[in-house]
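Training component of the fellowship. As part of building independent skills, the fellow (R.M.) carried out the full modelling exercise for a liganded target. The chosen ligand was 2'-deoxycytidine-5'-monophosphate. The inputs are recorded below so that the supervisory panel can assess the work.
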Amino acid sequence: MPSNPQNTVVVAIDGPAGAGKSTIAKAVAKHLGFTYLDTGAMYRSLTLKALKQNVNLESEEDLVKLAENTLIDLIVSEDHQLKVLLDNEDVTEEIRTVEVTNNTFFIARTPGVRTIMVDRQREIGGSNNIVAEGRDIGTVVFPAAKKKFYLDANLEERSQRRFKELAEKGKQVEPKDIQTDLQDRDHKDFTRKVGALKIADDAIVIDSTHMSIEDVVSHIIEIVVQNG
Ligand code: DC
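Fellow's submitted model of the complex:
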């Protein structure tokens, strides 16, 4: 069923950091044969470039100019891994550093930058069936999407998941620091003047605190497939 004027299907997944959106959106996209769109990777990529070029993160004019002159490509490989190209350079790993994570809010809170990002996201969704994840997908980017999910989990569970994820990568971080970090990111996400994280009126809320990844994925697929 068409979910936007271009007749493509958009599955929107919003929610706070650490709720498992990426893993779940990727798995849902793989199952449905849809394109996976990680909008956070776009904000992260622009942040990385701004940091590298010492752009004034407080200047909307400078950030908009930067966004206009930046090429961000999100490529999903055959084995369903996401590759992020910033001006044709592979930055898949580099956009996940603490420095980028901690500075992305400058980019994400800038209205002129969001307008550019949202336009690019709509272009991608206009020519492909997509599973898009972010903060404002169901509210701003694709408000007409028929399948909207808000994926949540409580702070403790999200912190534990992040702790495990970092430990698997060999990174030792204090659990308390992870929790404080997530709280800070939540605050920034919920209180931004533009593109703030909120639950769309017509979104299905999934609290994944006590659910496995597989259960969440099959729950979403069931709803998407059932409703045509
Ligand atoms: O999902 P993530 O953690 O990779 O997102 C990185 C940052 O980008 C996060 O701080 C919030 C921001 N973001 C946003 O403002 N809007 C989106 N649609 C996606 C991410």
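The panel noted the following from the submitted structure. The chain has a mean pLDDT of 94. The longest strand covers residues 147-152.
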